[in-house]
Write a structure and sequence with these properties.
Blueprint lengths: L4 E7 H8 L3 E2 L1 E3 L2 E2 H4 L2 E2 L6 H9 L6 E7 H6 L4 E4 L9 E4 L3 E2 L7 E4 L1 E3 L2 E3 L27
Length: about 150
């Protein structure tokens, strides 16, 4: 494992369509990176809230992309932590560039399962997904020197 990781929820069709080009540029549900300037991401602790709040009514298949932060940094793509923008007022990770769809940047793409109560967040410990925002991320501009 190269370092800390984040996750991004995607519609399977969007993910598969982007695979042809080797680059993923969908920010979130029905929104492109070009429209927002970043790709929404989540930590292990905020994933279920994202599934419930953003994708709760979605019936199309979803996947969960596991994203390596060190690989992003090596590509010059910054992760910005926006204080208060996540579920429950947590800091939300924003990936400020398109994802290269290689096994280093995205070491896993996991299918998500819909149960009787909604989408089910998988166990992520084996993938090294960070549970929360990095310590000390709340700089004046919301950026972290560790990501």
């Amino acid at each position: 494992m190269a370092g800390e990781r984040l996750v991004h929820v995607a519609f399977s069709d969007d993910w598969e369509a982007c695979e042809r080009f080797g680059e993923y540029d969908v920010a979130t549900r029905s929104t492109l990176l070009d429209d927002t300037g970043f790709i929404h991401a989540a930590t292990a602790d905020t994933l279920q809230a994202v599934l419930d709040g953003v994708y709760g009514d979605a019936s199309e298949p979803l996947v969960l992309a596991v994203i390596d932060e060190a690989a992003l940094a090596d590509q010059g793509i910054e992760v910005r932590w926006e204080p208060g923008a996540g579920p429950g007022g947590t800091a939300a990770p924003r990936i400020e560039g398109a994802l290269q769809m290689d096994r280093v940047t995205v070491p896993a793409v996991l299918p998500l399962r819909r149960g009787p109560e909604g989408w089910v967040a998988p166990e992520l410990d084996e993938w090294g997904v960070r549970r929360t925002a990095p310590t000390g991320m709340a700089a004046a501009d919301g950026r972290s020197g560790t990501v």
